[in-house]
Design brief:
The structure holds two protein chains of two kinds.
Chain A lengths: L36 H9 L3 E5 L5 H13 L15 E5 L5 E3 L2 H4 L1 E5 L6 E5 H7 L3 H10 L5 H7 L1 E3 L7 H6 E4 L15 H6 L13
Parallel strand pairs in A: 1-2, 1-7, 2-6
Antiparallel strand pairs in A: 4-5
Chain B lengths: L11 H8 L16 E8 L2 E8 L17 H4 L11 H4 L12 H4 L3 H17 L22 E3 L46
Antiparallel strand pairs in B: 1-2
The chains are: A alpha/beta, B alpha+beta.
Keywords (chain B): Mitochondrion, Ribonucleoprotein, Ribosomal protein, Transit peptide
Subcellular location (chain B): Mitochondrion
GO molecular function, one term (chain B): structural constituent of ribosome
Amino acid sequence: MLGFVTFPAGLVMLRSGLGSWEKDGPAGGGDMSSFSKAPQQWATFARVWYLLDGKMQPPGKLAALASVKLQGLHKPIYHQLSDCGDHVVIMNTRHIAFSGNKWEQKVYSSHTGYPGGFKQVTAAQLHQKDPVAIVKLAIYGMLPKNLHRRTLMQRLHLFPDEDIPEDIRKNLVEELPQPRKVPRRLDEYTQEEIEAFPRVWSPPEDYRL
Amino acid sequence: MVALNVLVYPFGRLLRGLLAGPIATSWARLPARGFREVVEIQEGKTTTIEGRLTGTPKESPNPPNPSGQCPICRWNLKHKYGYEDVLLLSQFLRPCGGMLPRRITGLCQEEHRKIEECVKMAHRAGLFPNHRPQLPEGFVPKSKPQLNRYLTRWSPRSVKPIYNKGHRWNKVRMAVGSPLLKDNVSYSRKPLMLYH
């Protein structure tokens, strides 16, 4: 009854390991509906670690994906109180890309509580000071505004570059697809592709570039 | 767009002098030399710097719509390109990154403006790493913190931060992309958002 076809296929090879009494995971066939009782229970309720690469991605879209996974909204067994969220690891937060002129226009405000303590910092300045802060604030704003938010933020792991500690790397199950399709630069096209593209106008004979 | 009195070519001063009188049309061009590449050969103690005539690249044969007036109409690309179509945009660029004039490329006014805007956005997105202006000798540019961006409408240096975002009925929005590309074909249901 509880065959979750939407779950990542990696759940079949559970890193958390199966207990001693269910040496058969999927009994014959490899389909999740043929799991015996305990492995099916593990597969349903185990907390999964997802990886997301933030290179050249807009932080808002990364945050939307991450907040859905953190709350557990992608699971059919979701309930607000059942603590069914997963872990999300976001790497390369130093290389996020804002659309438009948001690096200069977007302002992050805070107040220390003391008089004269109102600080307004542009996204570029904040990113310079802390490369992780923009994604963190974006996700914090997208989570539900209740006491669970702090727990969910503890399950979020942000790294400015590619190096992730070994113990987190061992937990990762699936890499989520990037939300934005990154366009190719001119030097990333091969010479054959450049030649195959038709030339759209011809300059006059006597024109000097 | 290069205005007629800001020509950079060596015959520009001559042209300005000629056109100081009654200007016939801006389409009259003095005979100039063709495309050439500069080749430097070192043979022992003699260095030969030579400009070799390269063939001017020709338009590919059989455009889908030969009756079109500008290259975009001829190739049926009217509302179909964006800032990421670098192979198309690079055909209208100079090696240093500037746009070619409209009277040379043959584009119509609105398409020229659209291509110019797409080229600006592509430069700001870093899609033309080799079309950089030539720096004077021995000049090392200061390393600036490199921020990735895309669909940037305004130049980064010209924009001020939005300190007061405004109330719910009167928000100050941030501009993304360009209104010139409003009529582009969109294959998804999502409307194009120009102000975030």
